[in-house]
Design a protein that fits this description.
Number of helices: 22
Structural class: mainly alpha
Radius of gyration: 22 Å
Shape: globular
Order of helices and strands: HHHHHHHHHHHHHHHHHHHHHH
Strand content: under 5%
Distance between the termini: 37 Å
Number of strands: 0
Length: 428
């Protein structure tokens, strides 16, 4: 069954079938070839994979992000970010990095970051004299902090696959890696702007304007604090936090910023429902795929084999990095987590690798695949939203990819970058 499963998934993906359908059909073909289980078991496992209380956080966080976007949050955060760095050489690039990082603390999605503040900042950069392709590459490269800085949909799914980590601990573990990625993107922007002499036409705002912009941004920024403080002190669970985020986002857009109209709510609900359906369809299909792997004992077999090799933890992590970087080129992070974590996480635990450290290495690796040619999904979204050719976008990527790989190397070599904050805050 295992061989049939992998042959089927490779063939189905090669012919361009959407990943959710490819996973479900591969599981169905493997069960049919095995002749030990009825076909209904595939649908049962898909349903079982969705029957999870923590998974309820996914649609609510998606809806919260849509409500905040509809409530002018993007414009508020752009003004807040630009006032600090917009007047510097390459200032709009820094503002792009800062605004996307702040928005990541609300959306939890790289796609939402690119489609919202990323597209707006790219247009602003082009008007200021930056190359459109460079602005698009900076946007795509920075947007992958979306799944790393909490709240993160991928982290919620990861916690469902590995019982050794909790959603709250993963949320806290993502802060330092996310900040490192943002700093690496800012450093790359500084280097490129220095070489190409990209200057800034922005003027430094007055202190009065800065205070006004900061005051207007505080309600939006408070959502991040509300979620994390509430989870840390046990006021609500991560799932309950997602519901709180929805009501808070609604209140911000309707009564604080007064830009959210009731007539826009049906369209917001529709977009959130479509995105939720796409995500959960992948989750359900991945659960069926993972079930076939489990009954074939492939994770246990691989774990026993690798442990017998007596690999050092660092050697194993380096091998995992190479595997995931290659894997991420062809597959989105969400199904990647669903398929690979049940196999790799037990092996990492048997080698004494901290589960939080391993989780961050896996998540950063797979999200990096979103901007890795030739298949990186985020590149296609950026190309469409920013209206830049794919070839021009890819030509601008090498400096950013090198910066990402340096951050990944730091996260691999220094576990404390991932584990220090959650351990200090009492998460284990």
């Amino acid at each position: 069954m295992s061989l049939t499963l992998f042959v089927a998934i490779v063939v189905l993906m090669a012919i361009g079938m959407p990943i959710a359908f490819a996973l479900a059909m591969a599981a169905s073909i493997a069960v049919l070839a095995g002749e030990h289980y009825p076909q209904i078991v595939v649908f049962k496992e898909m349903f079982t994979g969705l029957d999870s209380f923590p998974l309820m956080a996914v649609p609510f966080f998606i809806l919260a992000a849509e409500l905040m976007s509809g409530g002018a949050l993007t414009v508020v955060l752009l003004r807040f970010a630009a006032q600090f760095v917009g007047h510097l050489r390459g200032g709009l690039g820094y503002a792009n990095v800062l605004s996307l990082t702040l928005f990541s603390g609300i959306s939890g999605s790289a796609m939402a970051d690119v489609a919202g503040p990323g597209a707006m900042m790219s247009r602003m950069m082009e008007k200021a004299g930056y190359d459109r392709s460079y602005a698009a590459a900076l946007t795509a490269s920075t947007a992958i902090v979306g799944p790393i800085i909490p709240p993160s949909i991928i982290m919620i799914i990861y916690a469902l696959q590995d019982e050794n980590v909790s959603v709250g601990a993963l949320f806290m573990a993502g802060f330092v890696p996310g900040a490192l990625i943002a700093l690496a993107m800012a450093a790359t922007n500084w280097w490129v702007c220095r070489r190409r002499a990209f200057s800034s036409s922005e003027t430094r705002p007055s202190w009065r304007e800065m205070l006004r912009n900061t005051w207007r941004a505080l309600p939006a920024l408070a959502l991040i604090v509300l979620i994390l403080v509430g989870i840390r002190f046990g006021v609500f669970t991560p799932t309950e936090a997602s519901v709180v985020a929805v009501f808070y986002a609604l209140a911000c857009g309707k009564w604080i910023y007064r830009t959210l109209r009731w007539s826009a709510v049906p369209a917001i609900l529709s977009r959130a429902a479509l995105l939720t359906a796409a995500v959960l369809l992948i989750v359900g299909a991945s659960a069926a795929f993972a079930w076939v792997l489990t009954i074939e004992r492939l994770p246990q077999y691989l774990a026993e084999t690798i442990v017998a090799w007596h690999l050092q933890p660092l050697t194993f992590l380096l091998a995992v990095n190479v595997l995931l970087l290659l894997f991420g080129i062809f597959l989105e992070p969400l199904p990647g987590v669903m398929i690979l974590v049940p196999i790799l996480a037990p092996i990492a635990a048997s080698l004494g690798i901290d589960p939080l450290h391993f989780a961050i290495v896996v998540i950063v690796n797979l999200t990096l695949g979103m901007i890795t040619p030739p298949v990186g999904g985020l590149l296609f979204v950026t190309s469409v939203t920013v209206k830049v050719g794919m070839s021009a976008l890819v030509r601008e990527l090498p400096p950013f990819l090198i910066a990402h790989l340096l951050v990944l190397a730091l996260l691999t070599l220094f576990p404390a970058l991932s584990t220090w904050l959650p351990h200090v805050l009492g998460f284990r």
